[in-house]
Amino acid sequence: METEIRSGRRYKGVSNEQRRAERREKLVDAAIAVYGAVGYHGATVRAICAEAGLTERYFYESFENGEALLAAAFEAVMARLTEEVMTALAPLSTFDMGSIVRTALATYYGQLRANPNEARVFLVEILGVSPRMDTIYWDTIRQVSLSILRFAPDAAERADDLGLDLDLFADGLIGAVVQIALGWVRSGYAAPIDTVVETAMAILGAVNREYLSPRA
Amino acid sequence: METEIRSGRRYKGVSNEQRRAERREKLVDAAIAVYGAVGYHGATVRAICAEAGLTERYFYESFENGEALLAAAFEAVMARLTEEVMTALAPLSTFDMGSIVRTALATYYGQLRANPNEARVFLVEILGVSPRMDTIYWDTIRQVSLSILRFAPDAAERADDLGLDLDLFADGLIGAVVQIALGWVRSGYAAPIDTVVETAMAILGAVNREYLSPRA
DNA sequence: CGATATTGACAAGAAACGTTGTCAGATTTG
DNA sequence: CAAATCTGACAACGTTTCTTGTCAATATCG
Fold it and tell me: Domain residues for B176?
């Protein structure tokens, strides 16, 4: 008496899996919009589903709970940011660290300005939610750290000589960049982006010249 | 028929106002402990009252809601940190910026290590809770910014010359210090405190030597 | 001592939310 | 066309929490 045919049927021309994927994407986009409006903690499953134009049942089709959606939203934003930065860096022919960092910063801040809701997810909403989300956030931070430090091959050895902790050192540099982003977002993007980039470059540049550049 | 005598009566030897103040303080301390254990979002009014050894009615005697208590807890931690730093700086006779900053950092990180629960309130739990809490957090940040920049009187003018935004510049420096603190706390205070201080000093020192010290 | 204020334990109302279930209508497949 | 699947709107259950209220026991004041 039970229906055995479980594999999907095409609907409106699209396959089962594709419909699921589209609904999931709609939910992620809706979540970013709702988080931007009322924050993660003010966002309810109902509100997100309404924003997505979907019913609650489809929420649980793709996500176990609200936190899983936040994680997915964060990862989506992070993936987009990473891709944009990589794309911007690709045509660079120089290995000059200043140019690389400036380009990356300009792209990063530019994206945050172009997508304020995503900026909020990336910078604010993710924090202090749960141990699981903290882990995701810190894994991301450390991943970026590693990317940065790859441009300064002898940094580890030099940090050791100076009695510094390289991980914390990288955390500090990222913290500077992120806090500038936060201050800028919070100001309503008051300063022109060039000023923001140069301000971050002032800090990173000073550190680079003193600690990371090949010259001892 | 109504009781007109509203002004307090002494109880167990202490006055009305003092009893209230003591209960309030108990609640703040309990809140910090509970936040440290389960986070702000996992903390319920009941749990905090139980930790404080008080009943729920006394909660609403001192705080309008749970968020007000978080604000009070944050302010208490901030006040304590500020006082400790000020006390540590007072005996310094030098005006050397390096010594001042190093002492302040050592005190700050030392306090965070001595009080992990307070560290968590100060660094994590406060974030992303509500617009009101964000405002409190940012007012605090900017207040610290101003304190720092007072040691570099011509910084504003110089920042202008270089096309930087001074507020964002200060945000960046604070962000570096705070993110190092976060990384350190998250690591379970793995590195010795001297290493942490020197790591932060490496960033702040490089910036100071290049941008803030009297020499152009 | 008697009246009143204070305290602590706990009940109860109300509201919000997550999560699951129902069901009629639309769409596809054979 | 007929059966099966898919969709969307919404109801309903259970849980949790905030918040206010009740009441007896305890301490103070006159």
Answer: 66-212
